[in-house]
Write a structure and sequence with these properties.
single chain; 272 residues; mainly beta; 2 domains; 8-stranded parallel sheet; globular
């Protein structure tokens, strides 16, 4: 269960911290990490097209930014969302931790009915994109996927842009996350969370304009101790111990998502 290190770019490395593999050698890093191993991304930007992490059938692989948000996974094409497919059909578990993401979304492998992944500590900041569809993450494939303690901030431009948070099918958990949808420059009803089967607790889910959010975009009945604000008709009822008011961030416009001392979200979560 070794630790294998990566650095941005192409070339030839040995996988040690002093001489990391290059990102172009990811498949070699995965093979050498093996079952239960960790692939640690050193600081820098990792441009990527649509790709797959985890080929080779290894179980319990961890992909982690060595320093919190120090490794940035970014699309190679401006204004185009790229998916990273997590693992092949023979891999059982996978963890993705502490990355910054730019127009990158993760999804499970299509053919696996047993594959499980956990995404935690990621920060997704997308601003100014004009893509026709801007997704956050796809939980449509596999079972028991989780997103934990992560931040998703999206601010697309253009009335035709569709902002999508895709959490399809049941058996998925989203806990301790903040979803901030700045929909100021979008058309009416252009934003939504597609998929109502997931469960969640201790999340903040909000937009900047309720009229630009699709009707019935989330199933608040599946949410516990969450703050839901300006998410159209889901701002009124459902779930257990949810609140439907402004969470009072310090300054979302400068990406300061700390809570003000007067925030109704403070001590409103659950430890269960």
């Amino acid at each position: 269960m070794p630790d294998i290190y990566l650095q941005p770019g192409s070339g030839s490395g040995s996988g040690t911290l002093a001489d990391p593999y290059y990102y172009s050698e990811l498949s070699t890093a995965q093979s050498n990490a093996g079952n239960g191993g960790r692939i640690l991304f050193t600081d820098g930007t990792y441009p990527t097209a649509a790709s797959t992490w985890g080929t080779g059938g290894f179980s319990d692989l961890t992909y982690r930014s060595l320093n919190l948000h120090g490794a940035k996974i970014a699309t190679t094409t401006v204004n185009t969302l790229r998916f990273i497919t997590l693992d092949d059909s023979s891999t059982v578990t996978c963890q993705v931790e502490n990355f910054e993401l730019d127009s990158i979304a993760f999804r499970g492998v299509n053919s696996s009915s047993t594959f499980t992944f956990t995404i935690s500590g990621v920060k997704r900041i997308d601003t100014g994109t004009t893509a026709t569809s801007v997704g956050i993450v796809a939980l449509a494939y596999g079972v028991n996927h989780k997103i934990l303690n992560s931040l998703f901030y999206l601010k697309p431009t253009g009335a035709g842009t569709k902002l999508t948070e895709y959490f399809s099918q049941s058996g998925k958990e989203i806990n301790g996350c903040t979803f901030y949808l700045d929909v100021t420059n979008m058309g009416t009803g252009a934003s939504g969370l597609n998929g109502s089967g997931f469960t969640g607790k201790n999340n903040i889910i909000m937009s900047t304009d309720s009229t630009r959010v699709q009707d019935a975009v989330i199933n608040s009945a599946n949410l516990t101790n969450c703050c839901i604000y300006q998410m159209h008709t889901n701002d009124s009822s459902g779930g257990t111990n949810n609140i439907f008011t402004d969470p009072l961030f310090v300054d979302a416009s400068t990406l300061d998502f700390r809570l003000r001392p007067t925030s109704p979200c403070i001590n409103a979560g659950t430890a269960s």
